[in-house]
Amino acid sequence: MLASLRPILRKFPDAKRLHWYRYGDWESPVLRKELYFQGNIRVQFKAYTGLDCGLEYEVHNEPTVYAVREDHEKFLSLFFKNLARNPKYFAELTAKTERICATVERFILRLHKVKHWESFNRSGLDFWYSSFKRHYLSLFPYSFLWYQQEKFSKQLVAYALKLSNVKPDKTQIVIAKMMAAPLGRKPYSALAAADFLKMVLAVKKNPKLFRLFKTSSFGKTQGVLGNNDVKFSLDRHIRKYGWLSTRHWLGNPMSADEAFKQVKSLLKLNIDKVQLDRQAAARKAKLALGRLFEELHLSGPSKALINILRRHVFLKTYRKELLSKADFSARPLFTQIARRMHLDYRQLIYLRVSELENYLRQGKLPEISKLALRQKGYALLLYKSKVYLFENQFSKHAPWKGRRRITLTGTVAHGGLAEGFVRVVRRNRDIKRVRAGEILVCDMTNPNYLPALHKAAAFVTNRGGSLSHAVVLSRELDKPCLVNTRIATEVLKDGMRVVVDANRGYLKVLN
Question: DSSP label at 119?
Fold first, then answer.
């Protein structure tokens, strides 16, 4: 068992026999993480998938997540047995996920229409909290499908090829072609990136504005911008996509100054060429996938299964963004609840679900002294579908003892070559430290990384597969990207000079 888990699991001897592994790192307050556990337990997951499995064991030792292989292996086994019995099962599950996302979008619109939260009594606030919780939890079971996303994708493509009597050694080729040619609309982060390019085009068409953006700060340009189209576009972008800078109930929406700097950093690009290159690459990828289907003589059911998986390239990122959009849209509600409890929002998100619901339904206030301990560090254990909290718990990792002069290999998400200095992003606050031309290294990219992804010359992640957020954004921004290197954040340190060869799938430390 991992040494960092011993203090947490010492009272649960059965848990020590399980195969624990370090899944990844992400910041998350107590309230959000406990809701995540509630959304993925067996009851919720069975209602979503029809499979008798779900999340039984997990540890969130802020910010590190430890998972159990047995949970995911059971899901994979049951999924493919069900798919063999019902060939339409994955299509039905995909359609159900799309309906859930559409329902949550409609609920978010309802939330936006609510004004004057201070006029609601405790019962009214509880009604809206309960509605939020029901919709929010409905998005979580989908994430459990992709805990072992690379393995799941490979098994699903191999299963599709088997239906056409094609050898499984073609699996990786199909996945590579599929990654470059997703189906469905673009996620919010890709739309936000495209919106920035439109603003850059508008600035370049106006010589006065172009000089102003190149030489001045936002504060000096505010008066000059007035009510012109660029000022309107900046304001509209912040209203429409500003929430992408938040994640897991943390962080602040993009400010006008940050949006201005983003446009300014993109002025050096030849936007027309970038857009034409993207369109040409999308057409080429679609044709290449079609030719591969013909070469392999795939049957209708095989093509259908692979095309459903292509839809998940969009759906996987979109669902993650929708969680951020939902929790940001509910901030006015939770801010008002916090005021009634004599807390601020930052304290409220470190409450347990039961503590929040006890106040809303019984008027019982929690012990505020405990919240300070949780903000310093905490661990949540999900054990046989029950949640246990450990306060003032700090995540500890052994330092990397390998060689510094090292070559890492990973899965190519988007080809290209880049050289630069490493910037490791472990927490939300690190995102703003990324400078233009640096190599962004992280556990996994998320929608709130968008400003940093614009600046970075390339991205490298520990985790991620053919359907990950990094794949979608690297293709959209046309930047080299390696995923699934496993140990990038452990080996690489800020300031290291590296070369990323995303054509051949490796990263080499130069100094």
Answer: G
